[in-house]
Design goal:
It is built from seven helices and five strands. It is α+β, with helices and mostly antiparallel strands and 219 residues long.
């Protein structure tokens, strides 16, 4: 997973390191032998936090793991403490997006959801909705990272999306949106309207693609 290089560097030189599949396989095999499943998940989760500078802390985590795996629970180490908190932050975001992800029906019956999240949680959402939606085909599109989890009768995979045309929605989609907005409004108790509390439960950054908060969908 690469990050964008800075456009200008002051008094610095950089050396680009290209991936070596053979060396990468050796490292992966060694990590599989030395780290248990829980520790392997922690490493994977750290890499998904792609908007944070996790690399040096994760390198320290892996170095300690090879030397003495029992020390990985030592939170007095700043790097290990950072990785632990980073994983908690990621999983908290995942839990919220299980409830905040909104699907729209396309003309072919596929359910389509757009997200823009702080971390890359596409793998989590894909696995979750595969279980929840059964045989219904769906796409979860991470607009920010140009990634999409695609699930239909023929495949189940994460794809890189270089370009994406505006999808055509089903004729019933606007009705579904209107019904959802009516339910959302009807369920509210007007005398207890508290926008500050509402924002604490559903912060503004999650509302971009939530139908009930999208005034352009009003009918």
């Amino acid at each position: 997973m690469s990050k964008k290089m800075p456009e200008t560097l002051l008094f610095e030189r950089f050396h680009e390191v290209f991936s070596d599949e053979i060396k990468a396989r050796k490292v992966l095999d060694a990590m599989t032998r030395h780290f248990n499943k829980e520790q392997q998940r922690t490493i994977f989760h750290s890499v998904l936090c792609d908007t944070r500078n996790y690399e040096m802390a994760l390198l320290e985590y892996i170095r300690i793991g090879f030397k003495n795996p029992k020390e990985l629970r030592n939170i007095t180490n700043a790097s290990l403490f950072y990785i632990q908190n980073l994983e908690k932050e990621l999983l908290c975001l995942v839990h919220k997006m299980y409830g905040f992800t909104r699907f729209e029906e396309l003309e072919d019956g596929t359910l389509y959801a757009k997200i823009e999240t702080k971390f890359n949680i596409v793998p989590f959402l894909g696995d979750h909705f595969c279980k929840r939606l059964g045989n219904i085909p769906f796409i979860i599109h991470d607009v920010k990272r140009a990634l999409a989890f695609v699930k239909n009768d023929e495949l189940r995979e994460i794809r890189s999306i270089a370009t994406f045309d505006t999808p055509t929605y089903s004729s019933e989609e606007e009705k579904f949106k209107a019904l959802w907005k009516v339910f959302f409004k009807s369920a509210a108790v007007e005398s207890r309207y508290n926008p500050k509390l509402q924002k604490s439960w559903v912060p503004l950054l999650y509302r971009t693609y939530m139908s009930e908060f999208n005034i352009t969908n009003a009918t």
